[in-house]
Automatic annotation (TrEMBL):
Molecular function in Gene Ontology: methyltransferase activity
Species this protein is from: [Actinomadura] parvosata subsp. kistnae
Protein's name according to its UniProt entry: Methyltransferase domain-containing protein
Gene3D superfamilies listed in its UniProt record: Vaccinia Virus protein VP39
Source organism, top-level taxon: Bacteria
Length: 255
């Protein structure tokens, strides 16, 4: 995934209340130790990093790493006044600047769908202390509902779009991924997030320009216009409250 994509979305992420609640719940379930040293991988606008900094207290330290300078600029503003959180721009799959066994915990809120699961868990396991915790959140396969509608309409035009939630799309898959990576004492916790309703233009932009769906760029103007009309028609017919709810999984394991 390119940094420019996330740079372009940084402003909207910073104002997304559902991301705040999603991140705070992950940190709550992680039960981070006071005084702990925590890595927030794919920190984005820093919601999980800030929650973690408060959880570990002034004796602890949190480092948030993200590929996007735009996201980190927002994170820096959010973390103002918290001396125990810092941010670094970098690839969370390439953590060579951190020695083996550096962190008590590695967390990742809402970021796994943009990463290679196997590479991420291997990189994070290396920088964890023995017994250290890894924790991440993932949305269930087939959600959000609007993404499912978009893929269905794209299929009518010959596009086979992959569900980015598939790899970690339920408790079993989350637990299996952790076990394959060598983590033990694996546990999963179900949850739910409520997504905000966006205007038509924003909804279209989110899905038509998603880095998960590069195939959309192969459509000609006529097919692209047809996809937009059909998809947004489906979105307008949704039951707003029901379609806004998305089940998620929080998953944890120990090195």
């Amino acid at each position: 995934m390119t940094a420019s994509y996330f740079d372009g979305r940084a402003g909207r992420y910073a104002g997304a209340d559902w991301h705040v609640r999603y991140a705070e719940r992950l940190v709550e379930l992680a039960a981070l130790p006071p005084g702990g040293h925590v890595l927030d991988a794919a920190t984005g606008t820093g919601f999980a990093a800030v929650a973690a900094a408060r959880a570990v207290g002034p004796a602890g330290r949190v480092v948030g790493v993200d590929v996007s300078a735009g996201m980190l600029a927002q994170a820096g503003r959010l973390g103002t006044g918290l001396p125990n959180v810092t941010y670094e721009q970098g690839d969370v799959l390439r953590l060579d600047r951190f020695g083996e066994g550096t962190f008590d915990a590695v967390i990742c809120s809402a970021g796994m769908l943009y990463l290679s699961v196997e590479e991420a868990l291997a990189a994070w396991r290396r920088v964890l202390k023995p017994g250290g915790l890894v924790g991440f959140s993932a949305m269930r396969a087939g959600f959000p509902v609007m993404a499912r509608l978009f893929r269905a309409r794209a299929a009518e035009l010959g596009l086979d779009l992959r569900d980015p939630m598939e790899a970690l799309g339920d408790e079993r898959r989350c637990a299996a991924a952790l076990a394959r990576a060598g983590f033990t004492s694996v546990r999963t916790v179900p949850g739910e997030v409520v997504l905000p309703r966006s205007d038509d233009e924003q909804v279209w932009r989110i899905y038509s320009r998603s880095p998960h769906y590069p195939e959309v760029g192969t459509l000609g103007p006529e097919d692209l216009s047809a996809l937009r009309a059909r998809f947004l028609g489906d979105v307008r017919r949704l039951d707003g409250e029901a379609s806004a709810r998305a089940p998620v999984v929080y998953a944890f394991g120990h090195r």
